[in-house]
Amino acid sequence: MAGTSRAWPSFVLKFRVGTISNPSSAALLVEILAILAVGGVASGLRAWLFDSAATRVMARLRMRLFSSLMAQEMGAPPVP
């Protein structure tokens, strides 16, 4: 398992340096990068959707709490 984690940086480094000239390898790298880019965009969209949903839920809870507090009777002031 430890050997595979070290293989990835050297694999990318070979593409960066240009030692791999096989067109199918270059196409594979483009496909991998495209998949990573789509995954990153999807992850960002998911985070934004969860954040906006949480914001709306919190605003709704605050409005309901405020309305509930305002609807309650005010108690008589304490007698000294």
Number of helices: 2
Average pLDDT for all residues: 80
Helix and strand pattern: HH
Task: Please estimate the helix content.
Answer: over 70%
Structural class: mainly alpha
Tell me the strand percentage band: under 5%
- Per DSSP E runs of 2 or more residues, the count of β-strands stands at 0
Head-to-tail CA distance between termini: 76 Å
Radius of gyration, in Å, reads 28 Å
Shape: rod-shaped
Low-pLDDT windows of residues:
none
Mind describing the biggest β-sheet? none
Task: Provide a descriptive summary of the structure in words.
- By secondary structure, the chain is mainly α.
- The chain has a domain at 21-51.
- It has two helices and no strands.
- It has helices spanning 2-17, 23-71.
- It starts with a helix and ends in a 9-residue tail after the last helix.
Mind sketching the topology for me?
Blueprint: H1 2-17, H2 23-71
Characteristics of this structure?
rod-shaped, 80 residues, mainly alpha
Give a quick precis of the structure:
The chain has helices at 2-17, 23-71.
